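Ticket #4471: structure output looks truncated?

Reporter: J.K.
Steps to reproduce: submitted the chain below (91 residues) through the standard prediction queue, then opened the result file.
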Amino acid sequence: GNVVQLYEVQTGDELRKIPEVTAGLVALLFSPDGKTLACRMGDGGVTLWDTDTAKERQRIKAPPRPADRAGQTVVFRAGGTDGPGLAFTPD
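Returned output as attached by the reporter:
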């Protein structure tokens, strides 16, 4: 469905749900402190959620694709602990 569910790893209990993920979920990545969940959408945008409240913190729209590159496809490769096309920086 269009819901992201967060679980307590040790008990398997569901903690909360993040509803209305409607733009085609491509990748999820927790911030190093575990307080933010980033989601890359199929339209190229990114949404950030607070993991304690399951409330949306910020939505970042994908930049428009330049007309001279309209036919190109971008391929994301994961490296280390990054989600495809996602990474958190120390700052």
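Triage note (M.O.): checked the attachment and the full token line is present. Confidence is low (pLDDT under 50) at residues 75-82.
Status: closed, working as intended.
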